[in-house]
């Protein structure tokens, strides 16, 4: 990134080739279509270009890049806010799954993730899908590293308890 800041535009190609697949995956898991994910990927790297002078080389690059991506997604979601589904609807889905007797799950992981509160879902995705460290998650969430660890642990424990109560294998 420091080379790109110094107007070595070949460095942009290297940044794009190294990180575009992870950024695309981030959007693909959160948006309704691959085309929309591709648009957001391009917009993220456009924002990177526009903000290249403000990047602090003392900080890790990847969390900075994902903060750009995350902010774009948050702005989009604010404009197109989805309907909030309460916990009782999640329980109803799980009961439907247990009553169906089908070996195929009625409730998918994606459905469960969409029902989590935004902060919990983001932490799960940042840790397990994006592979971010607790330090990076804490920085992006605006909390201490200890708090990020505790919140993520509680979320994982809650998901385990929920799935255990529904007889799901872990």
List the helices and strands and how they pair.
Elements: H1 2-5, H2 10-28, H3 34-50, H4 61-79, H5 87-100, H6 109-115, H7 118-129, H8 134-141, H9 145-165
Helix pairs in contact: 2-3, 2-4, 3-4, 8-9
Structure description:
It is built from nine helices and no strands. The chain is an all-alpha fold and 170 residues long. The protein is globular, with a radius of gyration of 19 Å. Helix 8 crosses helix 9. The termini are far apart.
Short description:
The chain is an all-alpha fold and 170 residues long.
- What share of the residues lie within helices? over 70%
Per the principal axes of the C-alpha atoms, what is the gross shape? globular
Order of helices and strands: HHHHHHHHH
**Which residues sit in consecutive blocks of at least 5 with pLDDT less than 50?**
none
Indicate the radius of gyration in whole angstroms: 19 Å
**Structural class given helices, strands, pairing?**
mainly alpha
SS elements, strand count: 0
Mean pLDDT: 79
Q: What's the end-to-end separation, in Å?
A: 41 Å
Determine the number of helices (DSSP H or I, runs of at least 4 residues). Answer: 9
Largest sheet: none
Q: How much of the sequence is in beta strands?
A: under 5%
């Amino acid at each position: 990134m420091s080379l790109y800041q110094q107007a070595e535009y070949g460095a942009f190609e290297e940044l794009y080739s190294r990180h575009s697949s992870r950024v695309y995956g981030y959007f693909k898991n959160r948006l309704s279509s691959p085309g929309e994910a591709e648009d957001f990927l391009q917009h993220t790297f456009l924002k990177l270009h526009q903000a290249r002078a403000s990047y602090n080389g003392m900080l890790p690059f990847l969390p900075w890049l994902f903060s750009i991506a995350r902010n774009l997604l948050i702005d989009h979601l604010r404009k197109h806010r989805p309907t909030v589904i309460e916990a009782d609807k999640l329980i109803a889905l799980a009961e439907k799954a247990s009553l169906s007797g089908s070996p195929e799950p009625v409730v998918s992981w994606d459905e469960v993730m969409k029902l989590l509160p935004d902060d919990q879902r983001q932490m799960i995705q940042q840790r397990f899908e994006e592979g971010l460290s607790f330090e990076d998650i804490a920085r992006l969430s605006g909390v201490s590293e200890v708090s990020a660890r505790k919140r993520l642990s509680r979320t994982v424990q809650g998901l385990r308890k929920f799935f255990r109560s529904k007889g799901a294998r872990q």
